Prior knowledge:
Blueprint: E1 2-3, E2 9-10, E3 86-92, H1 94-102, E4 120-123, E5 128-132, E6 144-145, E7 160-164, E8 170-174, E9 181-183, E10 196-198, E11 203-206, E12 210-216
Parallel strand pairs: 5-6
Antiparallel strand pairs: 1-2, 3-4, 3-12, 5-7, 7-8, 8-10, 9-11, 11-12
Amino acid sequence: MxxxxxxxxxxxxxxxxxxxxxxxxxxxxAAAELCPDCGAPREDLAQFCEGCRYSFVTRTGTVSVPQSPxxxxxxxxxxxxxxxxxxxxxxxxxxHFARVMARSEPEDQGLYVPTHAPxxxxxxxxxxxxxxxxHRSTGEPPFIDLDSHPEDPGVSHEHAILVQQPxxxxxxxxxxxxxxxxxxxxxxxxxxxxxxxxxxxxxVHVGLWTTITVRRD
Length: 217
């Protein structure tokens, strides 16, 4: 039995079956697969190239998606104290993981979902909520940081944002993430950079196993 970097015993040698962290003794590929269009290395289990959106699944190039609309509010704008309060609950979702594995490539079938990870309850205290993983170069974390919950390798560094609307509800915008974003168990991902209105209790699925449920307090 192996021990992961977080100290959990695991019978698997690639990913910890408790927290999902890559095992220190897991074999590491000699070199990452390179995108044939732009030469960028393939990140983890990414279906698309982060640089040019080439599809590693269909082996075809894709049309570049537009940048975020310039009219978005500042990510650090605070929610007025008099407005309704909302909370995002982040959890390891086994049903979402099963859906992802059902449409994944054969080499990805050996992945394991973490079995012991507490839910996170995050008050939405800004008008724009960033979702992703912290950048290795700067160390700057997004508002909802999926780098250690445990780390979900299927989440992009700048995966998606939640934007508060004038009526104090929220809209979801996928930021052109590598593996896409789905809502309420849907099979098809939302279109990048297109706002999707969310209701109280809606579930946002990102990465391999992460579900974020937004609730009005």
